[in-house]
Amino acid sequence: MLKAAAFGALAGAMMVFPGDAAEAAATALSLWARAVAPALGPFMVCMLMVSGTLGGGAVMRTAMGWLCGSPGGARLMREMGLRGRGALRAAAMTGTMSPMFFIGTVGGWLGNGRIGWVIFICHLLGALAIGLCIRRPEPSDAPPAAFVPLGTALRESALALLAVALCMMLGCVAARMVSRAFPAIPKEAQAALQCALEVTGGVKAILSLNTPFAPALICAACSFGGLSLLLQNAAFWQDSGVTIGQLALLRLFHALLSGALCQAAVALFPLH
User: Fold this and answer.
1) What pLDDT is attached to residue 50?
2) Contact between residue 45 and residue 153 where contact means Cβ atoms under 8 Å apart
3) DSSP summary character for residue 105
4) d(CA 25, CA 215)
5) Percentage above 70 pLDDT, the chain
6) How high is the pLDDT of residue 139?
7) Is 48 exposed, middle or buried (0-12, 13-18, 19+ CB in 10 A)?
């Protein structure tokens, strides 16, 4: 009921401010076409082909989940049939974003590929640390790998990229509608709202603030993932007993830890 009310309110706001809604959606789609799809599309196809061939246990699937990003990691771990504490631990470790987004897209936006690598490493270390805080369950056998044909990898990648585009448009439109309804909201608060709804647009909003803490804030924002990524991951984990509230709490702790790690790394080892 609450979800229906939220989407109903968003639809109503779009009818009141149709021009702003269309402009925000177009901006998100342009961002997706210029920065997200080129970086993630080919890499996603390759990772689906590799993961479908290797399979493996929890360690291998976690590593592949880090490379696939969200919700690819959740998709891989779901195939192990994890439940309860095991599913929660796996969700904590694999709810990450693709390395290509950090080292390609974010590094390009910052004009420094090395900072992109630092953000990515801190992002992964935060996820690993949060996962290790959850007691390990009894080991279970992983199902054998199932070969993924190229056509299947292409189709799944195309559907995933389309879902990302739609989520980006929804998040950007929602953020614009809030800013139109409450025009007095400070620019910093608008950036935080954008990060909470859709992280790619949120990263751009952080960069527009011209703050020296941009790398740490970007790392924290990507570690939380925003509502769109939370919903995508939750769709894979819901049958394992992991709720979206638990995922949001895990990602919040992940954001705090990885953001602090990134700030420390940038302060100790300046890369400019």
Assistant:
1) 75
2) yes
3) I
4) 26
5) 92
6) 57
7) buried
Distance of CA 80 to the CA centre of its chain: 22
Residue 54 CB coordination number (10 Å): 12
Please calculate the CA angle 242-57-65 and round it to the nearest 5 degrees.
60
Contact 124, 221 (CB under 8 A): no
Structure tokens given for 49 = 């082909």
pLDDT digits (tens, 9 = 90+) for 85-132: 888 988 998 889 988 889 988 998 998 889 999 999 999 999 999 999
Residue that has been written with the tokens 């470790």 in this structure = 93
Does the pTM of the predicted model rise above 0.90?
A: no
How far CA 270 is from CA of 162, 188, 226, in Å, comes to 37, 25, 28
Give dist(CA 80, CA 142) in Å, integer: 5
The owner of tokens 């819901």 is: 238
Match 């590929």 to its residue by tokens.
Answer: 113
CB-CB contact of 92 with 134 (8 Å): yes
State the pLDDT confidence band at 187, using cuts at 50, 70 and 90: confident
| 222-249: pLDDT as tens digits | 999 988 888 878 888 888 889 989 999 9
Angle at 85 between CA 82 and CA 90, to 5 degrees: 60
Q: How many Å apart are CA 142 and CA 247, to the nearest integer? A: 23
* Per-residue tokens: 29: 């789609």
Phi and psi, residue 73, nearest 5°: -65, -40
